[in-house]
Every structure is written in C-alpha cells, then in structure tokens.
Amino acid sequence: MDAVKRIFVEKRDGFDVEASNLMADLRNNLGLTAIEKVRIINRYDISGLEGDSFEKAKNTIFSETNADIVYDEILPEDKDFRLFAMEYLPGQYDQRADSAAQCVQLLTQGERPEVLSAKLIAVKGDITDEEFEKIQHYLINPVESRKASLEKPQSLDMKADRPQDVAVVEGFIRWDDEQMQEYFNSMGFAMTLSDLKFCRDYFRDDEHRDPTVTELRVIDTYWSDHCRHTTFLTRLEKIEIEKGALTKTIEDALKLYYDSRDELYGKNSSRDVSLMDMALTGMKLLRKQGLIPDLDQSDEINACSIEVPVTIDGKTEQWLVQFKNETHNHPTEIEPFGGAATCLGGAIRDPLSGRAYVYQAMRVTGSGDPTVPFEKTMAGKLPSRKITTGAAAGYSSYGNQIGLATGQVTELYDQGYVAKRLEIGAVIGASPKSNVIREVPAPDDVIVLLGGRTGRDGCGGATGSSKAHTMDSIETCGAEVQKGNPPTERKIQRLFRNSVVSTMIKRCNDFGAGGVCVAIGELADGLTVDLDKVTKNMTDWTVQNLRSPNLRREWRSCCLLMTWNASSAKQEKKT
Description:
With 575 residues, the protein is an alpha+beta fold.
C-alpha cells in the first residue's frame, strides 16, 4: 500500500463564508459571544496517488487556487486557536471523499485512490473548557460522526475480522414467555413480543427447528411498519371523534367513507376498516365507476401512474406520469442532513424504478421553533435549529445534485412538532409509455442490482423507522438512518431515458429500507439468490458478511433491482 499523504485545505479570507456563518451560529445560538474567529479546514488523507498526479489533483480537485490555501502534511500551529477534528463514523457514506476519489480517477485515468476526509474546527476567543466541549457536542452528531484523531494513519487499508457464521437461536422453539421477553428485550426488534411468539410457534409447529438470527431479522424487516404498513392496516373496530371545531367535517368525511365502502364492497363486507382502506377507497370507487380510465395498473410495486397523451412537435404519443410522496420524520430528527436528503431520494426511487424521469418536487415540513435557545432543547433531541437548518441543507443538496426543481417548499412551525419532526418529499416524473415494458419474470431471467455506495444501514434501515424511540435512540440508531447517493441516482435516471436500456427491463423495484431481503422478494413469487454475489457495502473493513444478521450491503438509496430479459441482453451486448 502506498504511503498516506495528508493535505489541509482552508478558504482564503473573503471566501470563508462557511466559517463566518458558523461563528455567527455559535455566538448567537450557543451564546458564546467571546468567540472572535472561527476557521474551517478540510483534511484529506490520500493513498494511491503519487508524483505529478498528486500535484495536479491537489490544485484542481482538492482545492481551488484562487479561493483556497493548501498545507502539506502539517497544519501550521496557531496558539490563539483551539482545534478539534470530526469525521464520519467508519462505514458511513462520505460523499466528499467519494467524489474526490472519483474525480482523481477521471484525472489520472488510472486506479481509484483511497481518500478519507475530516473537518477541522478552530476557534479563537476567551472560552472555557466547558464551552469548548459545548461546541463539540453541538457540531458532532453521534448518529453519523465522531471526534477524529489528529494523528495521520499509517495506512488507509483498514481491515476487520471476518464475522462468525450466523448463529442459530438455540432453544428458541422451547422458550416460555419469560425467556421470550428476555430475548425480545435484548434484540431491539421493531416487531412486537406477540409477533416474536408467533415466530416461535411457527418454527416449532411447521419448521420443527430453531431459526437463525438472520431469519428473525429478515422477518422483523418484512413485518416492520415501514415495509408492512402495520399501523395503517390495523383493524379499527370503534372510531370516536373528539368534539372540536372540525368535528362536523370529520364526521361527514367518515360517513362518506362508509357509504363509499358499502358501494365498493357491499354492505355486509367483512373487510377490515383501516386507515389504509380509507386512503384507497376513494380511488377504488372512482375506478369502479369508470371515472379514472387513465389509471395505469401493473404488478409492479412502484409509484402511482396515469396515462397522458403528450404532443411533441405535432405528434401525439402516450406517456406515463408517475407520482410519489415519502416521509422521513424520525431519520430527519436524529440525522437531519441525511434524513431529509434521502426523503427526497426515496421519493425519487419509486418513479425511477418505474422508468420515469423525475422532474419536479415539493417539500412540506413541520418543525419546532428554531429560535429556542440551545439550553432549552428537549432531552434526547437535537436542537430544533440544528434539525431545521440541517434538513434544509440535506434536501437542497440532494435536489441540486440530481438536478431536480422543487416548486414548493413549506415549513410549518408549531410546538407540536418538537417531539416529532415532519419531513415530507413529493415528486412527479414521466416517461414515454413505449419505454416501459412490464412482463412476468421467467426462469432464465437475470436479477440485476444497480446502484452505488451509501450508508451503514442494513436491515435496520426499515426497522429503525418503525420503532418507538426513546431518549437513548440518538446514541444507538446510527446504522438505521438511510443515506443516498444522488450522483449515482442521477446517472441511473439518465440511463433509463435510453429506450434500448429501459425496454430490456421486465420488472423493476427500488431498494427501500428493507434492502436485499425485501426488494428482491417483491420481484417474483419465487427466486434463487446467491448472496455471495451481492456486493457488500464500501470496503470489507466496514461491513459484515451478507450472511450475518445485519445483512449490510452496498445497495441503498439510489439502487434499483431488475429482472433483465436474458434474450434481449444477448442481442444488445454493446449496450
């Protein structure tokens, strides 16, 4: 492995807008008025880049000569400043480092180097040790980052021990309720204790064996609220409406639902009353009445789609217009930038997997008062200001990188959102109908996984969004926040505009929080999957083997899974 080179990059005076804004933030929101100046220095550790190539990259990719000052190996010491470094947790997606490595590879036309980045914060002023700690606590979110060492590593080639084989939960089918409760408390499942007992009874009576930890984790993922919509499918046996200003309106809406339901299913239907049924009944009734003939129906589980005639250069052709909205309330609470970014990215994935090009978005959020002083932050929560500003930055960053216009942004401020953030992203996309081929997968078809490196979330990406959270959640849910990769998702959008590519796809599904175990399973009634051929996340030192309980993988927010028509692929080898 090549020697590690280190450079520090700092904006020149007049260009240091980020540092100036941070100083204002610390002075105004933390009350640290003694701060006189703040410096932000980006640190890069680079391996696999030598000589002229390193010099070119240093002054074109890692820095801009007119705007940046670059220091080689050692940052000049200034005793007037107190300094600390922060970096992403191992395995967490670092887009700055990833983009730099990709750009270097384009520059050199050679092997991709290893790059790690960190951010150094230097503060000048008469501040106490407690105030300096307060700054670090304010800036370092333990869900995604940590305080970094100031020492340069000898190598960037970090390795982890090979994980042990998947454990069998010995004695599971013979456990009594007390033992089940103890195991349930130790595992952090999203499913309920009753669900776990159901699993025990199933493996005892049908499988006649103990399950593995992975099997229970996969079931937990499938049964999570995120994947199964447990809350919305809950049977409502009795509905009471509180008295208030909107009582009459809600009563009328509920009566309309019951009347529509009777017309749709019949008056004596045994179908459950649920929030999901309320959401879908109107559309189903319109379809039954023949009032939405443009509705596009298929076996794919993607965005809502309608057929629209579009006139282009005097020629009318049929297009599919697709709609999708997504919420990322809890992820945005504990990791504002990544949570809001992937709220948009997640909304994009569904129409994208429907082969549509997403061209417009809308964002609606609910936030606590961002002007509340840092000291009054609710225990176990990030400050409202940090959530609000971080989420806005994350959403706009993702939208800008993928090239998506957001026509409406509305943020509602209310005390009710202090305990639970609201983060909604909605998108619309379109494609020529002729570009979308929907067929039933056949035995000779190949499953193609397409995407890029992202965060550390495994099965927990779904279950984390489905749990009841406590004051300790921010310390334990780091691997449960989905992360996106907008540059790769943008490439896939452009790829799918090519009809030669899109018409080779028989069925396509996006990789949501459920990951490999859910996304592949939704493609067909039966599949053969060799997990050893599924690329793992990042590098080997950041992940466990795919056969381990966490099922960590590379395929995340920008990823799609397709059944590829094998015969078409043979005809289009060049593509």
